[in-house]
Amino acid sequence: MEKVNFEENRLNDTRKRDIVVKRLNERGVELTQIAEITLYLQSQYVPDLTLETCLDHVERVVMKREVQNAILTGLELDILAEKGLISEPLSSMLMNDYGLYGVDEVLALAIVNVYGSIGFTNFGYVDKAKIGVIKHLDELGKAKDVCHTFLDDIVGAIAAAAASSIAHRYA
Ligand code: MG
Fold first, then answer.
1. How far away, in angstroms, is 36 Cα from ligand 1 center?
2. pTM (2 decimals)?
């Protein structure tokens, strides 16, 4: 028997990549800003690493279907929370970026998961150190009507995954 043809299967990964990048842009994040975090993470291991190479690996990361799905899911929850479309108690947890909520980090692990254990180490570091645009997003997210609960982890996870992709390439 043939499987149900979900909408996801009709969108090819390139088309979905465009949607994902546009959605990130609308939420205030350019892929170059993610590549800057990757460069920061990986330049000590790959001395002549350029921002262009990092951007190339960020582009590869956002071509992966499980990465795209995690991005779409996380950003949607942030947006719904901002619009007041999520019920309590979840609404307050998301709008206040409640520290013990934890599902934002778990969702982001679906992104780093694609690149193995180096990805997890990098993600843990990025999450704590709040490098580059992550720090900016974190600060903007403190405004009453802004929710970046999932966005900051997603950005960190994409950067960490790209760093791992580079590490695998140049190791
Ligand atoms: Mg978060």
1. 19
2. 0.92
